[in-house]
């Protein structure tokens, strides 16, 4: 008897909750209308392609019906891992990415710390304006300027780009040709990234620095700390959390090597050193139409990225920092 | 009383060193631009022979010429009998794609951000999680390409605009901004009989104009600079936006020319095309620069 009463009650509760949910949904109908375009976008261009990774397990080419393409299990992955170019891709991707991490990652932090030392506000503003500009320049322009600076003379009487000319004068070797040197592409890519993004990268760290409590500096000055000591013992520890966050995010894109930049710099001579996962996927999938195989390569990359970001996050938490998630 | 201005010799040296380093770095950032701009106005003979000391030579009188300054490269770029048509058409395409694309970006991003800013909305959390998940994992280049193609957007301008209609990162920052708006304003408006859309259009959007300008700039620069999208989704070279045409002109060398009478584009001409591709951004940039910091602040993702 009591049981049925309880059941009746909870049924009533449920009905009430349902009615409440319904009124809430009705009340917020305009909000759902606002959410509609964005939701459609995420479903069509983000969620459906996620299901599209199933292509990786099919023998699927351009021009063939998706449904007719046979399932082949992990064959595409096995093909890829046993391909000689797999190790080349992995090497290139890791070299480009690690060089970026070692040489580029610390620069915005250092630049932000230095900018913070400038006390003349208008000069600081002017410097910021200048260092942000390259971020807004297209990769096509950056690579075009690179080519102009590095090109070799078209004929005997002419001169090459400024940097090539300078290298020739400094080394005394009249045949210096940086663009024809395969491994040099690693340094070219690194320098381009540094030039383009260092300034822009400071914004997030400058924001973190702006949040440091001024009283700490005042106390340090009373204690006789020099400006350099204030930087090392107050400012730097204060932005450590931001640095860790940026580092974790960076780890998530450790296999993202800037597709546009590389495809624009790639030529027959440096391909052996500049072919990365992204350009390989583009070549096999878009150019040659081997959808199944190239999707498998892309999926491999995505999974490694997730593992990397998870590992970095866990490591950060273990080291006593707050992770991202 | 403590004087903050009290300085030691060490602090003074520290200051001097920092000012020198930073000034030097800022110069490195702009010198490539100055070089390209100067070279685009220089006589071809000048740039060919003396690119090393171009800076000094360009304004000096040369034999037979008043000086090395000339507009010849720009005249050639817009020469209608030559490449002028192609350049102008691609500039027109880029401008249209940038304007339409940015409007769509802002529309989709702000409407979704506002929808997600209401904390007690049913289904909000699930939707937010989906968005966050797309930031970590993506289907990749080819599955997205196949979706775009099967929607019939291949080789259309829609393919340059719709697949990137929302940047999840930007959308979340806009949402955080909407969440920080004073709740009282919205309540007052809803008592006055305003619908949620009315509140969004009449209150939330006008209060966030500086932020909209910043994200509008980010999106617009993305469209103007986009090379990858056009490379991936466009087939017909008559539809190429400016960045692709710029790339093709700069990459042309003597080896690519079939007709022996045609000369490859000169260096000054290449420089002029680069300048044309960069100038629009440099013009709008200073007006929006002050808002950047607010726009880029990530902040924590609010529940």
List the topology elements.
The complex is a heterodimer of chains A (325) and B (303).
Chain A: H1 2-27, H2 29-52, H3 75-82, H4 84-104, H5 106-117, H6 121-132, H7 139-150, H8 162-171, H9 184-210, H10 214-222, H11 227-238, H12 240-252, H13 259-265, H14 271-274, H15 277-287, H16 291-318
Chain B: H1 9-40, H2 44-49, H3 54-57, H4 72-77, H5 84-117, H6 124-136, H7 141-150, H8 158-161, H9 168-179, H10 183-191, H11 196-207, H12 209-225, H13 228-233, H14 242-251, H15 267-288, H16 292-296
Helix pairs in contact in B: 1-15, 5-9, 5-12, 5-14, 10-11, 12-15, 14-15
Write a structural description.
The complex is a heterodimer of chains A (325) and B (303). Chain A has helices at residues 2-27, 29-52, 75-82, 84-104, 106-117, 121-132, 139-150, 162-171, 184-210, 214-222, 227-238, 240-252, 259-265, 271-274, 277-287, 291-318. Chain A is built from 16 helices and no strands. Chain A has one domain (84-318): MetI-like (MetI-like fold), CATH 1.10.3720. Chain A is mainly α and 325 residues long. Chain A is 73% helix and 0% strand. The mean pLDDT of chain A is 87. By secondary structure, chain B is mainly α. Chain B has two domains: 9-70, no CATH class; 84-296, MetI-like (MetI-like fold), CATH 1.10.3720.10. Chain B is 67% helix and 0% strand. Chain B is built from 16 helices and no strands. The radius of gyration of chain B is 26 Å and the shape is globular. The model of chain B is unreliable at 61-66 and 298-303 (pLDDT under 50). Chains A and B meet through helix 1, helix 2, helix 5, helix 6 and helix 7 of A and helix 1, helix 5, helix 6, helix 7 and helix 11 of B.
């Amino acid at each position: 008897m009591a049981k049925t009463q309880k059941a009746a009650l909870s049924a009533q509760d449920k009905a009430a909750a349902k009615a409440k949910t319904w009124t809430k949904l009705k009340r917020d109908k305009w909000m759902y209308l606002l959410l509609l375009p964005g939701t459609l976008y995420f479903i069509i261009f983000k969620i459906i392609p996620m299901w599209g990774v199933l292509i990786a397990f099919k023998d699927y080419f351009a021009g063939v019906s998706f449904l007719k393409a046979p399932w082949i299990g992990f064959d595409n992955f096995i093909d890829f891992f046993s391909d000689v170019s797999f190790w080349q891709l992995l090497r290139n991707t890791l070299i480009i990415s690690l060089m970026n991490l070692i040489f580029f990652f610390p620069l915005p932090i250092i630049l932000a710390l230095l900018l913070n030392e400038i006390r003349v506000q208008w000069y600081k503003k002017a410097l910021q304006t200048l260092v942000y500009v390259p971020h807004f320049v297209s990769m096509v322009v950056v690579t075009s300027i690179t080519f102009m600076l590095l090109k070799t003379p078209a004929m005997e009487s002419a001169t090459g780009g400024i940097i090539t000319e300078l290298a020739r004068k400094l080394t005394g070797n009249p045949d210096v040709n940086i663009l024809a040197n395969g491994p040099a592409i690693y340094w070219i890519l690194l320098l381009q990234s540094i030039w383009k993004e260092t300034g822009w990268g400071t914004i997030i760290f400058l924001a973190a620095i702006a949040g440091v409590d001024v009283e700490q500096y005042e106390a340090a000055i009373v204690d006789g700390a020099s400006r350099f000591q204030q930087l090392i013992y107050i400012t730097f520890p204060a932005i450590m959390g931001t640095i860790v966050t940026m580092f974790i995010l960076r780890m998530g894109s450790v296999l993202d090597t800037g597709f546009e930049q590389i495809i624009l710099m790639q030529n027959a001579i440096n391909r052996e050193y500049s072919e990365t996962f992204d350009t390989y996927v583009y070549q096999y999938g878009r150019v040659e139409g081997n959808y199944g195989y190239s999707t498998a390569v892309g999926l491999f990359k995505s999974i490694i990225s997730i593992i990397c970001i998870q590992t970095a996050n866990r490591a950060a938490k273990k080291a006593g920092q707050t992770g991202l998630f | 009383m403590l004087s903050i201005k009290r300085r030691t010799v060490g602090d003074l040296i520290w200051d001097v060193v920092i000012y020198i380093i930073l000034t030097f770095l800022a110069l490195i950032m702009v010198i490539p631009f100055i070089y390209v701009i100067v070279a685009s106005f220089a006589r071809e003979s000048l740039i060919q022979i003396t690119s090393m000391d171009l800076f000094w030579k360009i304004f000096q009188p040369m034999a037979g010429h008043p000086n090395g300054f000339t507009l010849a490269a720009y005249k050639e770029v817009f020469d209608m009998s030559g490449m002028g048509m192609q350049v102008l058409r691609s500039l027109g395409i880029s401008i249209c794609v940038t304007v339409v694309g940015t409007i769509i970006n802002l529309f989709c991003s702000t409407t979704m951000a506002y929808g997600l800013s209401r904390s007690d909305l049913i289904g909000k959390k699930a939707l937010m999680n989906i968005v966050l998940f797309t930031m970590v994992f993506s289907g990749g280049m080819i599955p997205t390409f196949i979706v775009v193609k099967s929607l019939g957007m291949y080789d259309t301008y829609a393919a340059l605009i719709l697949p990137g209609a929302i940047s999840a990162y930007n959308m979340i920052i806009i949402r955080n901004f909407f969440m920080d708006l004073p709740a009282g304003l919205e309540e007052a408006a809803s008592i006055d009989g305003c619908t949620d859309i009315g509140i969004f259009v009449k209150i939330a959007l006008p209060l966030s104009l500086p932020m909209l300008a910043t994200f509008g700039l980010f999106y617009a620069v993305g469209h103007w600079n986009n090379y990858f999208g056009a490379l991936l989704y466009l087939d017909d070279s008559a539809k190429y936006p400016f960045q692709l045409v710029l790339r093709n002109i700069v990459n042309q060398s003597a080896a690519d020319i079939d007709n022996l009478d045609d000369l490859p584009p000169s260096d000054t001409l290449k420089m002029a095309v680069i300048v044309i591709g960069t100038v629009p951004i440099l013009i709008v940039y200073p007006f929006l620069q002050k808002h950047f910091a607010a726009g880029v602040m990530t902040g924590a993702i609010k529940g």
